[in-house]
Amino acid sequence: MKLKAKNQITNFLFMVPALILFCFIVVYPFIKGVRISLTDWDGFSTTYNFVGLKNFFKILKDPSIKGPIQNSLFFTIVTVIIDNVAGLGVAFAFRKNKRSNRIFRTCVFMPFVLSLVLTGFIWKYIYSDVFYGIFGIKSLLGNKNTVMWGICIMAFWRDIGYSMLIYLAGLQAIPDTYYEAAKIDGANHWKMFSSITLPLLAPAFTVNVTLFLGWGLKVFDYVMAATNGGPGRTSETFAMYVYNYTFPYNRAGYGQAAAILMMVFIFIISGIVSTLLRRREIDM
User: Fold this and answer.
1) Which of the two ends of the chain, N or C, has the fewest CB atoms closer than 10 A to its terminal CB?
2) Which residues does the UniProt record annotate as the domain ABC transmembrane type-1 (predicted)?
3) 91-143 pLDDT tens trace
4) Annotated domain spans of the chain
């Protein structure tokens, strides 16, 4: 028992620096943010009034929040579906460890190392100068009916490499003996894919779907860099709604309340989806 207690104390001491850093970077700002959300602080003045839950009720009654929520949900649904389907397809097509496949996988993954802001600026230039200059196609970002599709495309270009990498790791972890046994039993390629590959890729699905869901619901950088919420706020997302009220509109208390609501929403949705997907892993 003494040895076990000593090991537990040692392990805890190793965790202390990380816990201190976590409290300083995450816990303290969160607590301070909750306090700010209960005030009418403008972000600059040294005095502010306590308003309680007034900011939260205003957000729920604000008709202009409908657009940002719809844009965030649209972006999330599209990117979760397309990135996972395309990522799985690319990983499956180039899963064999050949030189040409390794080169192709590297090329697909390379955009993921770029920052989100840089990706937004790159595609803003491509839409406005390259597509229009060569093909005569007007920028998708300048039309309120296509702007969100344009943002989804740039996210797909950058993030498909990450999705491919997760699925590739899952595919390479599946023993070849399963497929050999299925061939002996007369199973075709579709049967092997649906009965062996997909079930054994359940952990990879859980990782990718949960991550892309969280990234999509809090998308900010793409929109900020490429459109700044335009044209006419038609591409404004929930995260941009929080930013606009916190900084340009000088309503930090209101913006902080919106940020807390967004965090709670993402936490609940991601938790539910992750739980359902992990339950499917257990049932396999």
Assistant:
1) N
2) 69-273
3) 988 888 888 889 999 999 999 999 999 999 999 999 988 888 777 888 899 88
4) 54-283
pLDDT digits (tens, 9 = 90+) for 205-260: 999 999 999 999 999 999 999 999 888 889 999 999 999 998 998 899 999 999 99
Q: Residue 142's closest CA among 115, 159, 116, 123? A: 123
Measured between alpha carbons, how far is residue 272 from residues 9, 51, 116, 206, 213 in Å? 34, 32, 27, 12, 11
8 Å CB contact between 277 and 51: no
Rounded Cα distance between 132 and 135, Å, is: 5
What tens digit of pLDDT does each residue of 154-206 get? Answer: 999 999 999 999 999 999 888 888 888 888 888 888 888 888 888 889 999 99
Which among 72, 81, 83 is positioned nearest to 148, based on CA atoms?
72
Q: Give 207's contacts (C-beta < 8 A, 6+ positions apart).
A: 166
The helix-helix angle for 66-93 and 202-217 (nearest 10°) equals 150
pLDDT of residue 284: 45
Q: What is the rounded CA–CA span in Å between residue 208 and residue 112?
A: 14
Average pLDDT of the chain, as a whole number: 89
CA atoms lying within 13 Å on the CB side of residue 70: 9
Query: Alpha-carbon distance 158 to 148, whole Å?
Result: 16
User: What is 54-283's CATH superfamily?
Assistant: MetI-like (1.10.3720.10)
Would you place residue 1 in the very low, low, confident or very high pLDDT band (cuts 50, 70, 90)?
A: low
Place of tokens 């007369």: 186
Residue 39 is classified by DSSP as: B
